[in-house]
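Reading a protein record of the kind used here takes only a little practice. Think of the row as the fold of the chain written in a discrete alphabet. With that in mind, consider the following protein and its fold in token form:
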Amino acid sequence: MINAAIVGLGWWGKTLVEAAEKSAAIRFISGATRTMTPEIEGFAKRHGLRLAANYDAVLAERGIDAVVLATPHSMHGAQVVAAAKAKKHIFCEKPFTLTKEEAEAAVAAVRQAGVTLALGYNRRIHPEMVKLRDMIRSGELGTILHVEATMTFPNVLFINPSHWRADKHETPCGGLMPMGVHAIDGMIDLCGPIDHVFAQSFRRAASIDADDTTSILLRMKDGMSGYLGTMTTTGPGFSFQVFGSKGWLRLEGVTHVAGASSEERRTRLFGACKFQPVKGEAKTWQAATMDISRAALEAFAKAAEGGPAYPIPYDQMIHGVAVTEAIVRSAASQKIEQVG
């Protein structure tokens, strides 16, 4: 059992605390947040959290083994470096950082300190993604031709314009950072490094100054192609599909919709699944219910205690940031951009 501090107590920080409530691997005993309110104080009291004055105070606590960062994206790089210097293990919510340079510096600090770093790409841990990975590795899908994903939610229709998530610096290319990076991580996991990208991103229905419609073409170094679409002003949805020379498999579900219950946000992201072979009848089934937020935190805790490594290697963490950085460049240049 490791003792952790939650840093950032917005709706997702609270969700992570709730995910660990019944865990035998990790528990939250401390927290810090930029904005203190009676509601946050009440949440902390109900969940047994002592609230520190700030992040530096959390890092100075001797009884804290790890920090879990549910903070604005632009803060992640510096916060990871500071935690590493304080010899704290780090679970960082996605996206990792906004630039490859920051990601490399953060990983270097972690390596030097000898602590564990994990990223919150919890969909990678779901049993259906694991089965899909096994089908690809075993050749059951044949030669992989193409992978595509669409991720949507209505959150930008209701967002407070003063919220940090409404800042285009924090969330360039609309739904890319809050949603699309999950799919990019999945593509890297299943298909290997991404070579180049082409993106378009614009605003259609958002009332704030933010893109709400983004589409991206990708080409992997191993030859297969990819597509990712995100929309932030329509109904919630998630689709991830891999096409191979022996058939295709599609996973469907929902995204993290603001206002949905904590239980739904943690356990109901995967739903209908379908495998269509080149010959024969299609097979359909319903994904197992699993708290993937708890699973990710527990995988981190076990890695921090010397158990199996967290399932996302550091080079893939850095590459994911390089891909998103190239997508942002492409949306601005309207040209194909190489992934650095």
